[in-house]
Amino acid sequence: MENLSEDLDNSTLNCTINHNIHQMLSPVIYILVFVIGLPANCLSLYYAYLQVKVKNELGIYLFNLTVADLLYIFSLPFWIQYVLQHDNWTYDEFLCKICGILLYENIYISVAFLCCISIDRYLAVVYPFRFHQCRTMKAATVVSIFIWTKEILSSWIIFRHSEVTKDAESHAICFEHYPIKNWEHNINFYRFVAGFLFPFFLLLFSYYGILRVVRKSHGTQTKKKIQIKRLVSSTISIFLVCFGPYHVLMLIRSLFESSCDFAARIFNIYHISLLLTTFNCVADPILYCFSSENTYQDFAKIVNTCVKCLRCGQIETTESYPMSTPETAKKIRDQTDLDPK
User: Fold this and answer.
1) Which of 65, 193, 301, 340 is the S-S candidate for 113 at Cβ 3.0 to 4.6 Å?
2) 164: β partners
3) Residue 205: what pLDDT?
4) Which fold is adopted by the domain 10-338?
5) Eight-state DSSP code of residue 76
6) Which residues of the chain have pLDDT under 50?
7) Does residue 46 sit in helix, strand or coil?
8) Over the stretch 222-252, which tens digit does the pLDDT of each residue have?
9) Residue 201 backbone dihedrals phi, psi, to 5 degrees
């Protein structure tokens, strides 16, 4: 192994933690997310491009959200190999930092763009005319550049520290320290407040305002109301299920983890919560599906096509002309009767 830092944390070196959950659960989840998430996000990227093409600012946020998911998905093969080798990183430390940044920063880039989507929908529904200048392609582009710049700059803190350490079995552990190091505490507190708690209240405020206006609106069609409610419920669900448990346990670790014993007790549940964040890459395409009625219908058509393909054995029956309706068949018979030939 090349370029591994010799400055190993003694507490990590002396910690003996059972990593069996990584061999049992993590590879299954990573492979599942990779197999489902890659085509789903490629499809979402295409639909986001179509939205951008028709000058819909929401497409800018969805496009960036999908790009963030794809970048993380491309790092999954490295994590799959890592966990299958009993948490032993066989590449250099630079690649460990890149994969770790893609893993963790994908969380906060996703959170940021989920907030952008919620604010965009809030302004569109509650103040459709007052803040129109905030809902332009130019504004969405500027906000997206700011988010990416902020997350890239915050990654510099990670590059300043060693991210490959050795455990009691001399395995090279990538991006994890047991117990967590002193410099990580402040970063974790910042991530919990600015990366989870504040965005969560922002989502609640935005969608509460949206639902309140939609309920009082008598001019809004029922179909449109259902679409808006789908977007609200899917965004809140993705946020709570994928990001909630991880941030709560991250806060607990930062407050109470000071020994290997505590790290060992919380290890399994913490990594299960970390795996939940991975499902964000599969959930975001569902969010995109619910954000647009046309996209929802397109996804429904794709699902129906897949179902028909799976039932192809049942289609090949004596009904050889499924495209022919009774009206069409009657017209054919009438034309046959009138034809002198």
Assistant:
1) 65
2) 174
3) 92
4) Rhopdopsin 7-helix transmembrane proteins (1.20.1070)
5) H
6) 1-11, 315-341
7) helix
8) 777 777 777 777 778 888 999 999 999 999 9
9) -65, -30
